[in-house]
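Quick illustration for those who missed Monday's session on complexes.
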Amino acid sequence: MPDTTLPNSWDARAKAHSFFGFTDLPSIEARGTVVLTHGEGPYVIDTEGRRYLDANSGLWNMVAGFDHPDLTRAAQDQYARFPGYHAFFGRMSDQAVMLSETLIHVSPFDQGRVFYTNSGSEANDTMVKMLWFLHAAEGRPQARKIVTRGNAYHGVTAVSASMTGKPYNSVFGLPLPGFLHLTCPHYWREGLPGESEADFLNRLVAELEELIANEGADTIAGFFAEPVQGAGGVIPPVDGYFDAILPVLRAHGIPVIADEVITGFGRTGAVWGCESYGFVPDAIISSKALTAGYFPMGAVILGPDLSDRLQRATQAIEEFPHGFTASGHPVGCAVALAAIDLVLNGGLLNNVNRIIPRFEAGLAKLAQHDHIGEWRGRGLMGALEAVRDKSTKTPFESDLSVSERIANTCTDHGLICRPLGQSIVLCPPFIMNDAQMDEMFDKLSAALDQVFAEIA
Ligand SMILES: *Cc1c(COP(=O)(O)O)cnc(C)c1O
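Prediction with pyridoxal-5'-phosphate bound:
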């Protein structure tokens, strides 16, 4: 525990001048801030020299670990060559040209175009503006509503937070009008007593049909979905979900956007989450693993239909009035090229598929615990949901903060994992070996035993 009484401790200095986001202030009051200095493989090291196995790959993104020489070298070389440029006025770096070619090549699309941002939130925001622009240009100015799902996470800008289906955004007076949320496709939690999975799915399809009928298909600009919901608690959809809902959306001409900010580049065992679920969206939103977390960057990857239509609509008014100063930053593009090569050709995706069975077995074993209601996940993203009563799925009382306690206990034992609602989320880096995977589950198992003994 850092000595928080010292005014010049890292903890005190962090608290004095850093405004914390997504951080529980009572927790850091009690426990102090963890200030990190560097990383080694999947481990991070703090100012006190303590090592933590980061079972969340930072924030889902550091898939190659924290010191990969290919990525740091790609950045260093590009900084030496051409350290920054924009993508306005018909100019862009050679790295941006090459990355767009590569992204279309590795995408499920045979043709298309890419637009760069600095984050996943901005990429979703950009996609919404593209849809608003496109529909207006094609004579449907009323087509502005955006449909997402409960527990969706699409980011934090005013638009992407409105797309996010989490109650905490009410403190900002969000969502904005016209952002509609369907039921989260989580059978274990959302299924009614006695309702089969197939009936649950039918109910979700009927809900979507009803929403389209009530709102009017011509008022809907697009549908966004994470193939596996990430920050909502690692929620794979009920079986058959995309096969059932996509035809409804397509029948009404509603564009389907896959938010692959977490699932993109190998997390589910395929290059894209949509591949794992057997569908091709109209566009893909990418960020996080795009640069393996070594540079802030996001991308809107447009499939052929949206790409052609947006190109036509832009030609009609001569320019698409949108872009960020650092869009298509040459260092970000160079790092992304190296990261994609490393994941697809350098053995990382192979390692993901090699360790998925060990990961699933570890989750399934911990789920035998009396106070774990279910394990869920897909590929190398998983969650364990804590419950007071397994048979009735009754959660622990919220003032017990069960998942925070488990995560804090893990931190004390050198493992970083993430509490989300009443679940613990694991999202290991793609470089993890068997021994590190075992270390992760051993430490988590000990923390579960300790916390459940305290509160059960
Ligand atoms: C993290 C995330 C975002 C937002 O990305 P930022 O880079 O944090 O803005 C959007 N969508 C999904 C699915 C995410 O997981």
